[in-house]
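Continuing from the previous page of notes. For each protein in this section, the sequence appears first, followed by its structure tokens. Read the first protein now.
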Amino acid sequence: MDKREVITAYRRGFITIQECGQILGIEDIRLSRLVQDSVESLKEEEQLPERFPVNSSSAE
């Protein structure tokens, strides 16, 4: 399972912080830093303009 998926599951309330740490195999202090970093990263991504728009047509 991807770390981002585990953190997202925690942020959405599907698992507890302890379960999140157990799945990722890290301790509480490091886990809280990881979650905080992921939140900051998401905020930065939302603020950046999309550089490469996705083209819905298929390139053949």
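Done with the first. The second protein uses the same format. Note its length before scrolling.
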Amino acid sequence: MSSAAPRTVGPDHLWSVDEHLEDILATVRPLEPIELQLLDAQGCVLVEDVTVPVSLPPFDNSSMDGYAVRVADVAGASEEFPAALEVVGDVAAGQADLLHVGPGQAARIMTGAPLPPGAETVVPVEWTDGGLGEGPVTGMRARAQAPEGAEGHVHVYRPAAARAHVRAKGSDVKAGDRALEAGTVLGPPQIGLLAAIGRGTVRVRPRPRVVVMSTGSELVQPGEELGHGQIYDSNSFALTAAARDAGAIAYRVGAVTDDAETLRSTIEDQLVRADLMVTTGGVSVGAYDVVKEALSHVGDEDEAGSGIDFRKLAMQPGKPQGFGSIGPDHTPLLALPGNPVSSYVSFELFVRPAIRALMGLDDLHRPRTTATLTADKALTSPKGRRQFLRGTYADGAATPVGGAGSHLVAALAQADALIVVPEDVESVEPGAEVEVVLLG
């Protein structure tokens, strides 16, 4: 992360969503590239083009179990007048010493085995009697069960064109071709391709390590008994899952009590494994908003350039936000509000883009589209605030789910989109066009 501290203004300034996001992305830098083993690189972003060192396939090989033959020897073959060929042996995948197929000869060949010298085409075993002399067969018997099948004669009942059922050398990719370009996210097919061309390691930007921490003395871990005035800690689970969904390696820290020193100590302990810190709760103006208390002056003691700026944003939900860096490495920290919907919406708008920027991706944001509002009544929105309403999106229509309350977790679980109401709009009638952020 850049050591530049975020810009600050007066305490009553209301920041726009775009200004806050701009400040975050201006200071978050992609992680330094490292060389990783293939499976460790899954989900990472490639930082250099990968060139194919050897053609795929590296040799002409059979795409069928059958017989490698010369074209002229099976021309005109039919069930009434089959071509009778001498079987000179087997060619199996991985076999180093190849047989030579001469005129009037055939070699049993397995799928993936190299086409032997002299052979020009492959006849599928189903077009032959399999060397058994009993008419067309449906498959090739294992050598262990019928060793005599690799010698003697085979009857072929159909002709085959030149190079039929042959995978040509380099028909997938040729030596010198670009296999993958820089910026590619390595998923299973890309990992498979790298292995196929012989790459054991690859240079990538690592997946960022994100530490998620919730605050509040009222929070109890799921599975434990609730006491009076307590609630289960859901935010840290939702945000940790969201960080993993964004591509990060995420670590969840159990809820920290409302004590500023305990919180600050816990954050400092977690810095060793964090490329990004995310807290939820304690950023408003209450007497027990410990994140604000613990981190408001962190820059006074850390290296120059560190510091957390707490802001009010012109958005609903998610008005209180915090952003900055902490520790000697200027680890970015995003402090989100504690209400479940507020924290999740804030994650989607601010944390997810930061994670993807750390990964070195160009596409930082969820896809957006326009949709027709489907609702029983007009949507209302506070003037001067950009509102993000939970909704569902299907077939060009967006439908709100749940109310506007930032505590309504059940409605959030039903939503697959956020309906955006701009700052200058106070009412949206059913049938109007709205902007939609697609969440999944």
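What the second structure shows: Residues 340-358 form the longest helix (19 residues). Residues 299-305 have pLDDT under 50 and may be disordered. We return to this in next week's lecture.
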